[in-house]
Recover the amino acids of this structure.
């Protein structure tokens, strides 16, 4: 049993670990982006991996490493609580924990740190797409889910490709404003119900082992390779990146002034070059989604308990649970019935 002094020391170490982890997490991410941009491979999957490695190394170097057993036990418990909460690791403080190199952090949920292949989550027959009222109206009018035509994106990033549509089962925490707020996720003001086409080839993934198997089946090295290739950010620049890809600099500069009159760039040529690199980054992610559909995978439903069955539960690359990533949105049939969940009860309040 730990002594009073050991407990007091442990409390201090936990505070130091969490505090330094939060700071290094906030600084490490932009540092990683900088290293990726200056690597000469910006806009490619290899450049993304360089940025991720640089960010991880920075956070590991600048995060206090607790030495006492009490502090390590407490941090293991925090990891367990985050997993048990069924909320995705989108909270900055939780993301910072992934940089704390505590021995056997995952063993709090998995004795010995050994992953067991559990699963059995059934694929829901009906899903809900949370979005803004404007986007919901566009979807209902079109009668289909089209990320490129639904209006302004709710998120500027996507874990599974730039053209992927996301859905959650009825009653999911994603659609509950209170739970979404506690996870610092977007609180949707509208939602559209959908039903999958019977021909949709959707795979249910309940744990990291299954995700690894799926990735290798589709031709990726492993789940990490697949997820880091699919992951894209800066999607607010998607249109400009496509313009730069298909235009000369002269045409791009002229089109920018017409399409984006409020934008001001001191160096248009530099922006043009950056957008061309970004288009390569997006294309690599699009190719990865094609690789999945060519392997007979139209979508992946990440089960609600996925986060409890991974080796490193706080690593950023793991997909968020309780959501369907659909690579072929045309397989989602729009249903007009009102959505029965807490979300709509809170709209307008």
């Amino acid at each position: 049993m730990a002594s009073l002094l050991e407990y007091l020391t442990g409390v201090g170490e936990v505070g130091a670990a969490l505090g330094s982890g939060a700071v290094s997490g906030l600084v490490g991410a932009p540092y990683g982006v900088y290293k990726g941009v200056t690597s000469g491979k910006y806009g490619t999957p290899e450049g993304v991996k360089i940025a991720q490695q640089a960010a991880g190394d920075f956070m590991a170097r600048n995060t206090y490493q607790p030495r006492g057993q009490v502090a390590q036990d407490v941090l293991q418990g925090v990891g367990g609580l985050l997993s048990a909460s069924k909320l995705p690791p989108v909270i900055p403080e939780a993301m910072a924990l992934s940089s704390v190199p505590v021995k056997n952090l995952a063993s709090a949920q998995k004795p010995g740190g050994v992953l067991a292949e559990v699963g059995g989550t059934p694929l829901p027959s009906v899903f809900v797409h949370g979005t803004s009222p404007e986007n919901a109206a566009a979807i209902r009018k079109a009668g289909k889910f089209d990320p490129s035509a639904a209006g302004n994106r709710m998120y500027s990033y996507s874990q599974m490709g730039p053209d992927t549509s996301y859905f959650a089962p009825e009653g999911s925490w994603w659609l509950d404003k209170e739970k979404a707020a506690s996870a610092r996720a977007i609180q949707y003001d509208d939602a559209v119900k959908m039903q999958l086409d019977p021909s949709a080839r959707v795979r249910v993934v309940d744990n990291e082992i299954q995700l690894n198997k799926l990735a290798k089946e589709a031709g990726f090295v492993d789940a990490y390779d697949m997820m880091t290739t699919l992951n894209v950010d800066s999607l607010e620049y998607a249109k400009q990146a496509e313009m730069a890809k298909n235009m000369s600099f002269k045409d791009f500069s002229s089109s920018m002034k017409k399409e984006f009159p409020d934008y001001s760039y001191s160096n248009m040529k530099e922006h043009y070059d950056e957008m061309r690199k970004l288009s390569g980054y997006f294309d690599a992610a699009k190719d990865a989604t094609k690789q999945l559909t060519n392997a007979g995978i139209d979508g992946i439903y990440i089960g609600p308990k996925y986060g409890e069955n991974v080796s490193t539960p706080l690593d950023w690359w793991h997909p968020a649970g309780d959501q369907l990533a659909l690579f072929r949105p045309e397989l989602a049939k729009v249903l007009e019935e009102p959505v029965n969940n807490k979300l709509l009860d809170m709209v307008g309040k």
